Amino acid sequence: MSSKQLKQFSKDEVAKHNQPDDLWVIIDSKVYDLSRFKGLHPGGISVLIDEEIAGQDATEAFYSLHRHEVLEKPQYQRLQIGTIEGEKPVIHSRIVGELSKVPYAEPTWLTPGYHSPYYSDGHRKFQKEVRKFFDEVVFQDAIDREADGKRPSQSVIDKMAEINMHAMRMGPGKHLEGRVLMNGLVKPEEFDYFHELIITQEFGRASLRGYGDGLLGGKVIGLPPVLNFGSEELKARIVPDVLAGKKFICLAISEAHAGSDVMGLQTTAVKSEDGKEWIINGSKKWITNGTFADYFTVGCKTEDGFTVILVERGPGVETKQIKTSYSTTAGTAYITFDNVRVPVGNTLGEEGGGIFVILSNFNHERWVMCCASARGQRSIIEECLKWTTQRKVFGKPLHSQAVIRSKLAAMISRAESVQSWLENITYQMCNMTYRQQSGKLAGQIALLKSYSTGCGQDTARDAVQIFGGRGITQSGMGKFVEHYHRTIPFDALLGGAEDVLADLGVRQALRAMPKNVRL
Ligand code: HEM
């Protein structure tokens, strides 16, 4: 209803409509007529005709039980018949492009009055535009696709391509040369790892994990081996279409037989008699974006050991959806290769040198995961701070309980420490060559990844305790907490399991121990 048609009522006038067939309520100074809706109300009739609700200001009761988005649905907006005279609504939903004012909902560098040594004015302008883009173009698609399980809409992927978002998500590098980034906001040579961090964290705000991976997460890990190890001919043929969002690529390493143990993989590649082609046989499992990928960066057992080969979808390649605990929008696949013939020119790196190809990718891949994990935790803190403020228990907000505040303290400390360590590492990355990063940061990034996803799991558990039954319910107040708690194991597994990474970090440190130190 437009504001012109809305009538103004006094509270006394509203109070007269307190009968089942004449049932009005006030929520945030808006007057709703629930007389006909009451029979359809998912929470039942009795709660609405309660004498403390019918004809009364039900704002507190409403926000104790519903997310604000309920009132924004067109079918419910229609129930509004007026407003209370002299009052104005104060509660509003997410405003496109705006920063949250909830404490700790944004990292320090985005919180007014705080400072950071890492971000320039250019980064700040960039963040504003990325957030606006995400809110306007991506957010609704994330909600819709997460619900229907289809892959992210091509229209979103096309709009991302227009601003070269697919290329920027690959991080700084040659692939940005000659491209207009974010409508010219940042020059390709200025684009650094903080820009990339901003993109990953802004896109992580939706807290919809399956969609996050569906939005070409496979490309982020599957394309670097092509960019770094593919022949010029192969790159010219593959990369432009992938970065334009016209073709999709994924990384196909893990199998039912083996995962991190890449030497235990059983997919084989043998040369054809004329030596011009690879003939590939085997299967791959849990391959993100595999169901809709056109290209597969495949780890194969070859005569010389382990080799990475780019396979194009064609005869002999089959992909099947795997249903995991997050949405099928990620396109997680089981893939079979049945006598698939691939030109030898599709080899990425040296024959038998596949382990180097894969390892060289790991640092960046894990760092991207840390960026997303740090942001995911912050979204959950925002949910918990809002909930514990609006939820009343024993007549007081939930946060009046010391045990609840203690959980909030732990969540905040974890998220802030992850972000601070992440920004430090990112700064090091900006000032190191790729080779230096491999030497000096592999251990740090592995430890951060392990720490960050461990923090995420603790925060998920605490958040469920705070939300109670709602934290395990897929709709309503706790829906994001439920989603986070259900999908957090992905963060803790992908790119290396927590214990393995923590151990890697310590082994790297031990390797650097000076020989001449003693207690
Ligand atoms: C414009 C007014 C209202 C609308 C459009 C509305 C709509 C809904 C919807 C869609 C749900 C399903 C749960 C969800 O998706 O969040 C729900 C649940 C519920 N509503 Fe309402 N409602 C309204 C007012 C009220 C009021 C005033 C009360 C009074 C206390 C109330 C009590 C409940 C209860 C108890 C539930 C079940 C909550 C749960 O399962 O956790 N509703 N309502």
CATH architecture title of the largest domain: Up-down Bundle
Tell me the domain tally.
Answer: 4
CATH class of the largest domain: Mainly Alpha
Number of strands: 15
Radius of gyration in whole Å, from Cα? 26 Å
Largest beta sheet: what is the strand line-up?
1-5-4-3-2
Poorly predicted segments: none
Mean pLDDT rating: 95
Q: Considering the protein shown, what is the CATH homologous superfamily of the largest domain?
A: Butyryl-CoA Dehydrogenase, subunit A, domain 3
| Share of residues in strands | 5-15%
> What best-fitting shape do the alpha-carbon axes yield?
elongated
Distance between the termini: 76 Å
SSE-based structural type: alpha+beta
- Hetero compounds: protoporphyrin IX containing FE
Percent of residues in helices comes to 40-55%
Give a structural overview.
Its cofactor is FAD. Belongs to the acyl-CoA dehydrogenase family. InterPro entries: Acyl-CoA_dehydrogenase, Acyl-CoA_DH_CS, Acyl-CoA_Oxase/DH_mid-dom, Acyl-CoA_Oxase/DH_mid-dom_sf, AcylCo_DH-like_C, AcylCo_DH/oxidase_C, AcylCoA_DH/ox_N, AcylCoA_DH/ox_N_sf. Pfam families: Acyl-CoA_dh_1 (PF00441), Acyl-CoA_dh_M (PF02770), Acyl-CoA_dh_N (PF02771), Cyt-b5 (PF00173). Residues 6-85 form the Cytochrome b5 heme-binding domain. It is a single chain. This protein is α+β, with helices and mostly antiparallel strands and 519 residues long. It has four domains: 7-84, Roll (Flavocytochrome B2, Chain A, domain 1), CATH 3.10.120.10; 110-215, no CATH class; 246-352, Butyryl-CoA Dehydrogenase, subunit A, domain 2, CATH 2.40.110.10; 363-512, Butyryl-CoA Dehydrogenase, subunit A, domain 3 (Up-down Bundle). It has helices at residues 11-15, 46-49, 59-65, 69-72, 74-77, 121-148, 154-162, 165-168, 193-203, 209-214, 217-222, 224-229, 232-243, 354-390, 402-430, 434-467, 479-493, 498-511, and strands at residues 7-9, 18-19, 22-27, 30-33, 80-84, 249-252, 268-271, 277-287, 295-302, 305-312, 317-321, 333-343, 347-348, 392-393, 396-397. A five-stranded mixed sheet has the order 1-5-4-3-2. Strands 6-9-10-13 form a four-stranded mixed sheet. Strand 14 (392-393) and strand 15 (396-397) form a beta hairpin. Helix 15 (402-430) packs antiparallel against helix 16. The structure holds protoporphyrin IX containing FE (HEM).
